[in-house]
Amino acid sequence: MSAEFLRIHPDTPEERKIRHVVDVLRDGGVIIYPTDTIYGLGCDIHNTRAIERIARIKGIKPQKNDFSFICHDLSHIADYAKVGNMAFKMMKRLLPGPYTFILDVSHRVPKILHTNKRTVGIRIPDHNIPREIVKELGNPIITTTIKDDDDIIQYITDPEIIFERFQHLVDIVIDGGIGGNIPSTIIDATTDDFEIVRQGLGPAEV
């Protein structure tokens, strides 16, 4: 069965379409969606079967994942990660934006996601589509990158090409326009000695 190709306005997402996406997520669906960096592959973090589907698509075990969470705002983050005062101040300054913050997990993170890990990546992208999805859903969604088989291109930016590649693996591919090809900047904020793990689109303002 082929996925649905759903166009959503990137600046003013249509409420009806956002609700439809959320219904699919609540039913265990897997979606591909735009962010402020590259397109992401994701599902509801509380749906074990959907997480396992994403792991199969990525060719990894769920417990050995590099998944991050997309949250709607800073108040969402404290529910799933432990945030120190200095880290909170930096996140307040840089988010929403093209950053992933590595933080210690809280007890609310589903066990399938941290059996062998004590940290989690947290994102609040500067993009209305994923943030409105999370707001309507009421909890974070997983985000993990989709890569091209071409080592030079690395990331697929055209949603129509993404649909051609993934239409039999996911339930919805959201067209929010051409995506970027530079991933987020990853900052380890588990201690006050912040460390840039990967330099990406976000300026190094640690």
UniProtKB/TrEMBL annotation:
It comes from the Bacteria. Residues 15-202 form the YrdC-like domain. GO terms for molecular function: double-stranded RNA binding. PANTHER family: DHBP SYNTHASE RIBB-LIKE ALPHA/BETA DOMAIN-CONTAINING PROTEIN, THREONYLCARBAMOYL-AMP SYNTHASE. NCBIfam families: L-threonylcarbamoyladenylate synthase. This is Threonylcarbamoyl-AMP synthase. It comes from Larkinella knui.
